[in-house]
Amino acid sequence: MAQELSEKELLKMEVEQLKKEVRNPRALISKTGKEIKDYVEAEAGNDPLLKGIPEDKNPFKEKGGCMIS
User: Which SUPFAM superfamilies does the record associate with it (predicted)?
Assistant: First the structure.
């Protein structure tokens, strides 16, 4: 699709995208970084990658072994 558009049309699309992006609310990384860190630390106890999955609730646990005779 981009190959079919002229350079002028591509630049217009880029300007429109930049106009949309400039309206996005911005926040300081010092504030949002702390919020993300606090959230991750608060939810660490519920994270199955850190805590593990109980054997009785693990849907991927092998039900039985393979028997070769």
Answer: Transducin (heterotrimeric G protein), gamma chain (SSF48670)
